[in-house]
Specification:
The structure holds three protein chains of three kinds. Chain A is of the alpha+beta class. Chain A is built from 17 helices and 21 strands. In chain C, a hairpin with a 4-residue loop joins β1 and β2. By secondary structure, chain C is mainly α. Classes of the chains: A alpha+beta, B mainly alpha, C mainly alpha. At the A-C interface, β10, α7 and α13 of A face α2, α3, α5, α7 and α11 of C.
């Protein structure tokens, strides 16, 4: 199916080139400080997919593969892999001379243990990613053969250090995986060794002198600095105290200001694996949004570009269907009708009239409470905007802000909401990132970020199932076109816009975008121009 | 009018009163000065003061800052006043009973008061608002809950010092009920320190509300100065006016209330009166 | 000797009275926190971005959240009796360790704040009282009030913009330089350097309180009989103020400072947030929003114990300073 053995040579050449350049001396050394927000709950990427963990842990742990900006696999702990034609056997050939930070060798036994005993059991998404893997054979120390029940092309996109880190068997085996010491003091194979975590202040990683990639890493030290206040993070960036801030570390309004400052750069690269989409979830089981007509009307009224321009300061792209346009390269994207180019109030009013949402004396057709995702100021502004926008067609909203646990409990456990402002990661493949939002089997009371609208449609379920296992790209594209049309008509979830996360960086920092994993990458090639 | 003569002697108190009256007038006439919803997207976002028809500028969504300040004055003053009334009532009940009866009642009530004084107050307020969910009423409750112990201590002290006075003894002899003595006889005699403490509490309540809003715990459906500050703080560097004007409004109001409170103190406090 | 015994008995009695208070604080907060919707498992799952039902059930079992409430409370109380504050759900480490780590920065900020606020407050109060109702008095009152009424975060941000970005005098935030990792004396100097801005910001808020307290306390003492006597004896105004009034006027200020140190242990969430100061306030704030019950209870418990201890110490010191006050 796909073989990257030839790439092995390319990497070797690249590494030699690095070695031979005279610039090497200047490219090494220095302490790289980046700003991290919020503080991670632990440093255990095998137990949590929390974003802040993902910004630290991949510098310590590694995955079997890395990915480029187009999400093509790049060798990491696996120097090559081979997928059998039926897709049921995947063989990984592992790098040699890789050691854990405590000096023990990394072998195929670690791979089997990581996947079968840790990721499949304890990782929030692992049970899905490795659903079909029933056995991993280890004929020798450097070969791991994954045996699958059914073909699972999406699994090959879930092997990064962030998504599926390889963890040390010798430290975890026979212990309580969750309470193991490495939960807060990680021991990996990566370019940087964990040194210290001062809660509320910083996490310090020092150079791994025995890193298996020759000549790397270039930095002497990596420090993740924790700053709770957004304005202070910006000030620290301006003052040259930190070199890098990803995700919402820097508020959009500050991004456009910092962009113009000499020595500070901004990029939107590095988020291919995340593919974030802002959206509205409707409770399909509760009035007033239990009819498709009113959900479509909302989509017709909202001025997506206004939100992008005034709340996200230009960082975003209007959604035109249930799937992100980033899936277009895989042929899985088609614009659909209820995502208008311009807001269309007249059409929305007609829809509401036809569906029987008649205005009362105050011109109000429906009342509801809008719950707003408690992940930052922009979302509040977005909620305030939506309230004003929907008032135009007689949908009167009250806003409700709650803290994270309360909000999650309300939306995904009690289903005690009507309309909810949220965002989802569509991830590199719809099967991992999008299916969880719509499938009947994804109505899981108490589980956050799945099908909280309780939309259930047998036809769609069948389409999703065939989309997941269809190996032919063209046929798969046709299936997903049907899926998008179905979701456009029923619209249990209304996409707002494809979010463009940014990375704000000090221009002294070089070569930090070599991986498609962006902030979730190892930074082993990164260096500081001192 | 003797009171007014005494109050007038304190020039800064008169100055404070003038500001306070101005704020009250602004609050009362908000809907006339700025008709319509203060949340309305009224024009070009982030307009500087004096441009695009915005006297004090517009915020990130194009809402009129001046309209928000006028309408927000109602909310902020309401929160301050309501929280104070609730806190004073709680404080008078607890402090009055404890001071009047003494003994085990005093012991028990004062232990309860100490419990509330021992919990870090701002954190406790955050906890309460987060649990009941951010809204005007939860904010009022939270502020009252963390403010009443001070009033209780004050009232208790006054009741202790008054309960053995002759006029109280006389009431006992005439067979007056305890409740009547406490409310009709003693309370009026300790009103002045309560008024002074209460006036300052209004100011503190407004500050606490803005602090809660800064942390994202304000009421999202009703405009207040705290809301404006919370919404404007992220753009402080690019659009200073969005949170500076509401900040100045809070500053002036808190300042005015404090000056008036000091004036009241000077005018009502007999000991100071004798001396100066 | 008799006095010492009395003081000791008094201290014991006060400590005994403190037990139900601490107990009540634990119970109240325990139930308040359980009133909140969502638990630590939901919060952690939310942070992780995804979770399976089995994963959440595992978390609940691990945290003991699957047991009935009274049982949970009983277990907590039993552990507290042997000074075990339990495990933080979110941080996955002992609460005592976490709290201790954050305690020193908190103490540092609070003590320096109280020192500055009391120092300047006493000075300003003295100046105001000695010029009663003059422009100086008015100016000081208004100045103190303005610093009190200006939102803290605004002062903090302005300090950062002015002193860190424009003048480059101080680092924007944090407690130490994390690129350098200084040791020994350099580290002390580095921390002191980082301490300046948060301390000034927070002191400005408390300054008003001490200024006003000192002013009224001075005025109150000035009206006392002993002052009249001293004046009759022909002492100079200067000697009267500095030799007699000042000493007595300081007493309430000291008491208030003692109470404040205790109350401030909970920290100023806002100043800690703006300056990324690693104090207990932010820790508690985050604990609340991740429903980290043990951690929050631990912080409340610790601050309650401190308030009680400090109040007791202040009272006893007071009885030394002012022999007219009888303990017991």
């Amino acid at each position: 199916m796909f073989n990257i053995k030839q790439k092995r040579l390319g990497v070797a050449v690249a590494l030699m080139a690095v070695f031979s350049t005279a610039a090497l001396a200047q490219k090494s050394g220095g302490t790289y400080v980046f700003v991290l927000h919020p503080e991670p709950p632990s440093l255990a990427p095998h137990l949590s997919t929390s974003g802040p963990i993902g910004q630290v842990a991949p510098k310590v742990y590694q995955g079997l593969l890395d990915y480029d900006e187009d999400f093509n696999p790049v060798p990491e702990l696996a120097e090559s892999f081979d997928v059998s034609p039926d897709g049921l056997t995947v063989t990984f050939n592992l790098q040699r001379n890789v050691t854990w930070h405590d000096g023990r060798p990394f072998t195929s036994a670690d791979v089997r243990f990581s996947v079968m005993d840790v990721l499949k059991k304890f990782h929030p998404r692992g049970p899905n990613s490795f659903r079909e893997v029933y056995e991993i054979q280890t004929p020798d120390e450097h070969t791991a053969i994954f045996k699958l029940e059914k073909a699972a092309p999406y699994m090959m996109k879930a092997l990064s250090s962030y998504e599926s880190p390889m963890v040390p068997k010798h430290l975890l085996e026979g212990t309580d995986i969750r309470d193991n010491e490495i939960t807060n003091k990680p021991v990996g194979t990566g370019p940087f060794k964990f040194v210290e975590w001062k809660k509320g202040q910083y996490i310090r990683l020092d150079k791994n002198e025995n890193y298996w990639k020759p000549g790397l890493p270039r930095l002497d030290r990596v420090v993740a600095r924790i700053i709770p206040d957004a304005s202070t993070r910006t000030a620290a960036m301006e003052n040259g105290e930190v070199f890098y801030g990803a995700f919402d570390a820097i508020q959009p309004v500050d991004v456009i200001r910092l962009r113009d400052i000499d020595g500070i750069g901004v990029t939107t690269k590095g988020y291919a694996s995340i593919n974030p989409m802002s959206l509205i979830e409707f409770n399909t089981q509760k009035a007033p949004f239990n009819q498709a007509a009113i959900r479509n009307a909302v989509s017709l009224v909202v001025d997506r570009q206004f939100m992008i321009d005034n709340i996200w300061y230009g960082y975003g792209k209007k959604a035109v269907s249930a799937l992100s346009s980033r899936f277009a390269s895989a042929g899985l994207h088609a614009a659909t009708g209820n995502y208008p180019a311009e807001p269309n109030v007249a059409a929305a009013v007609k829809l509401l009239d036809d569906a029987g949402y008649a205005p009362d004396d105050n011109g109000v057709r429906a009342r509801a409470v809008l719950d707003v995702i408690p992940y930052g100021e922009q979302w509040r502004r977005a909620g305030e905007y939506l309230k004003q926008a929907l008032a135009e067609v007689g949908i009167a909203l009250d806003l409700r802000y709650e803290d994270v646990p309360t909000w999650l409990n309300r939306v995904y456990n009690e289903y005690d909401y009507q309309i909810n402002l949220n965002y989802f990661y569509q991830l590199p493949d719809p099967v991992i990132g999008v299916h969880r939002h719509y499938g009947t089997d994804q109505i899981r009371k108490g589980t956050p970020f799945v099908n909280g609208t309780r939309y259930s449609d047998a036809g769609l379920d069948a389409l999703l199932a065939s989309g997941a296992s269809e190996p032919d790209a063209k046929k798969r594209g046709e299936i997903y076109e049907q899926i998008q049309n179905k979701l456009d008509a029923d619209m249990p979830v209304m996409n707002l816009f494809e979010m463009e996360f940014v990375i704000v960086y000090n221009e002294k920092l070089k070569e930090f975008t070599f991986s498609g994993m962006g902030p979730y990458s190892s930074f082993d090639r990164t260096w500081l121009d001192q | 009018m003797a009171f007014w003569r005494l109050f007038r002697r304190n020039r800064s108190a008169v100055f404070g009163l003038a500001i306070l009256v101005a704020v009250l007038v602004l609050a009362a006439t908000a809907s006339m000065l700025f008709p319509g919803d203060p949340f309305k997207l009224a024009g070009q976002p982030m307009s500087a003061p004096g441009t695009n028809g915005f006297l004090l500028g517009s915020d990130t969504l194009g809402r009129d800052v001046a309209s928000g300040i006028a309408h927000g004055a109602q909310t902020s003053l309401l929160i301050g006043a309501l929280a104070t009334v609730v806190a004073v009532m709680l404080g008078v009940v607890f402090g009055g009973l404890a001071g009047y009866y003494g003994g085990w009642i005093d012991d028990v009530l004062m232990r309860v008061t100490e419990v509330f004084q021992t919990i870090p107050s701002f954190l406790f307020a955050i906890l309460i608002v987060a649990i009941i969910k951010p809204s005007i009423s939860s904010i009022v409750i939270a502020i009252a809950v963390v403010s009443w112990p001070a009033v209780a201590r004050l009232v208790r002290g006054e009741y202790i010092s008054l309960r053995h006075r002759e006029f109280v003894q006389a009431c006992h002899i005439t067979g007056m009920s305890d409740a009547r003595i406490m409310l009709r006889e003693i309370l009026p005699n300790c009103l002045s320190p309560i008024i002074v403490a209460g006036s300052l509490m209004v100011a503190t309540a407004i500050l606490i509300e803005s602090g809660l809003s800064f942390l994202g715990l304000g009421d999202p459906n009703i405009i207040s100065w705290g809301f404006q500050i919370g919404a404007g703080r992220t753009v402080l560097r690019s659009a200073w006016w969005v949170c500076t004007f509401p900040g100045v409004a809070i500053l002036l109001t808190v300042l005015a209330i404090n000056l008036v409170g000091e004036g009241l103190n000077d005018a009502l406090n007999p000991r100071l009166r004798e001396r100066s | 000797m008799n006095q010492t015994v009395k003081r000791f008995r008094y201290a014991m009695k006060r400590l005994a009275q403190a037990v139900p208070i601490v107990l009540a604080i634990i119970v109240i907060n325990f139930f308040l926190l359980h009133l909140a919707e969502g638990d630590a498992a939901v919060a952690l799952a939310g942070e992780a971005g995804s979770a399976t039902p089995e994963y959440m059930a595992q978390l609940r079992q691990k945290f003991g959240l699957d047991k009935p409430l009274p049982v949970q409370l009983g277990i907590y109380l039993k552990n507290v009796l042997v000074f075990d504050l339990g495990f933080s759900f979110r941080h996955n480490m002992p609460v005592a360790e976490l709290v201790f780590d954050r305690f020193m920065p908190t103490l540092l900020l609070m003590v320096s704040t109280i020192l500055i606020a009391v120092g300047f407050g006493v000075l300003l109060g003295l100046l105001a009282a000695s010029g009663l109702n003059t422009w100086r008095d008015t100016f000081i009152s208004v100045f103190a009030l303005v610093t009190y009424a200006t939102p803290l975060f605004w002062v903090g941000l302005m300090m950062i913009i002015l002193f860190a970005l424009n003048l480059g005098l101080f680092p924007t935030s944090g407690m130490e330089n994390f690129a350098a990792f200084h040791e020994g004396w350099d580290r002390v100097k580095d921390i002191a350097h980082h301490l300046v801005m948060p301390t000034i910001t927070l002191s400005l808020f408390y300054l008003a309180l001490y200024t006003r307290l000192m002013r009224s306390s001075m005025l109150e003492q000035a009206g006392m009989d002993y002052v009249t006597t001293a004046r009759a004896k022909g002492l100079t105004e200067r000697r009267i103020v500095f030799g007699h009034i000042l000493r007595n006027a300081l007493l309430p200020v000291v008491t208030m400072a003692g109470v404040q140190v205790g109350a401030l242990i909970g920290g100023s969430v806002i100043v800690e947030s703006v300056f990324a100061w690693p104090g207990l306030g932010m820790l508690a704030f985050e604990a609340l929003f991740s429903r980290d019950l043990n951690l929050l209870l631990g912080i409340f418990l610790l601050s309650a114990l401190l308030v009680i201890a400090i109040n007791l110490v202040v009272d006893i010191i007071y009885s030394f300073l002012d022999p007219r006050i009888e303990v017991g």
